[in-house]
Structure formats: structure tokens, C-alpha cells
Amino acid sequence: MKKMKSILAKTPLKRWIKKDPVVAVLPLHGVIASGGSKLRGENLNLMGLAESINDAFEKKGVVAVALSINSPGGSPVQSALIAGRIRQLADEKKIPVYAFAEDIMASGGYWLGCCADEIYADQNSVVGSIGVISAGFGFTGLMEKLGIDRRTYAAGENKSKLDPFSPEKESDVEWLKKLQTEIHDNFKNFVKDSRGERLKKRKDKELFSGDVWTGTKAVELGLIDGIADLRSFMREKYGEKVKLELLEEKKSFIQRTLGLGSQSMVDRAVDSAIGAAKREAAFNKYGL
Question: Which of 85, 99, 203, 227 fits as disulfide partner to 116, beta carbons 3.0 to 4.6 Å?
Fold first, then answer.
């Protein structure tokens, strides 16, 4: 008995109280754009996600952060800001980050994935779309048919570029293409810096054409590291007792009780309907 007490006295307490490893799971689901909310299937942006990102790296006992990504992309600015914040904290805290694609990880969604140390997907996930796109409408024919005149007054010769109610100008299109090329180059450089030697020896024209691939093909191209789901991967890496802790949106007492935000119920209903239509269109682009 005395011998047992002696052994216990010499053994550090922490060896007897071994806590299970924790993986913070940050869901990045939806279209990437400024405004909206963070984790309600609305827009993804740094303002809405900053607190959750910080919480992920501050969790007690956290051994890794897992990004659950299901996004067709959106704003390149918000994509870069979110990815940059995650990478900064990962480097500061020395905590590994793993990204897992669900249905889709395309365009800005893939930009988010590239901030992780490793990227995984389902074999049927849609991955890629490393490109930049701008879309709109021209109403000049309709205006002419209805007998409507467009009257625009501006100080600055470039203030009314790409006006959908005026005839398209070749110089405006050239200006837009130059802007897109610069943003595309930034995207390509981020992917190259992130993936490094893992990118297979393919021509840039193929990898950065804006095309998408299945998860299986993305592995072959070096765009992702393998086929795996989040739970199975983490259990294999950190053991069956690993705890997956989901980061959820924090709401005020009034929001939790009444389900209200700062907008009126009518405004919220209109914004929700418009937002839902936009998100549906973004996902439908990839047949999802």
C-alpha cells in the first residue's frame, strides 16, 4: 500500500487525467459575399465568420481545425479575407487545418480550401473552377422597343462603365477583362503557393481554365490530397475518442427567443427570398 502511494506521489497528475483530443469543425456552407449572416445558409464573409474562426483556434484541447466546405464560390475579396484569417491563426497557434469538401468546393470555395494544410473530398464532390466571372444583362433593345431614353450624367469619363442601359463599349469590355485577369492571377498564385509540389505537372491552361472535376480526378491533378470524410479521417488520425466540436452561430437572447435580427420581419423575408434565389442559382450552375 505504501509502495502504491509512493508511485502515485511521483507520477504527474496530468498523466492520470488524459483528456480526449478535440477537433474544432468550422462549417463554410453557402455563397461567399459581403452582408448576410454567417452560418444560416446565407452569405459567408469575414465579418460574419471572424468570431467563429477565432473560437475554433481557441478551443481548449484543440489539436486541429476542420473546415467543412460546401460552397460554389462568390466574392474573391471575401474568399481571400476568410482564407487569410484562418491561415494566420493556424500559423500563430501552430494548429493544423484540414479542409473537407461536401457537394461542391468550387471557385471561391476552393480558394477557402487552399488555406488548409491538406484538402479532402468525396469521390463525387465537384472541385475546382479556378477562374473569375462577371455576368449581367443589357437592356438597350428592350428600352428601344418601349421607347425609353437613358439619361446619364457623370463627372469622370469612366464613371458609367458597363452601364446595362447603354450600348456596350469595346473599351469597357477590355477594361473588365484586364481586371478579371489580375484577380485570376492572384487566385492562381494562391493555389500554387498552397499546393506547391502536390500539383501534378499539368499545364496552367488546364488547371486554371475554370473547369471543374470530381473528387477522384482532383486527386489525380493534385488539387486535393485524397478521398475521405471528416469524421472517419479524424478518428483514424486522432483516435476513436476524438471529439468533433461544431462551431455554431452565436445569437443574442432576443434572436434566440424570437428568431429576429436587426431587420424588420418584412425586410428579412424579402432578403431571404432574394438570397435563396441567388444561392440556388449559384449551386445550380454545377448541376447541384
Answer: 99
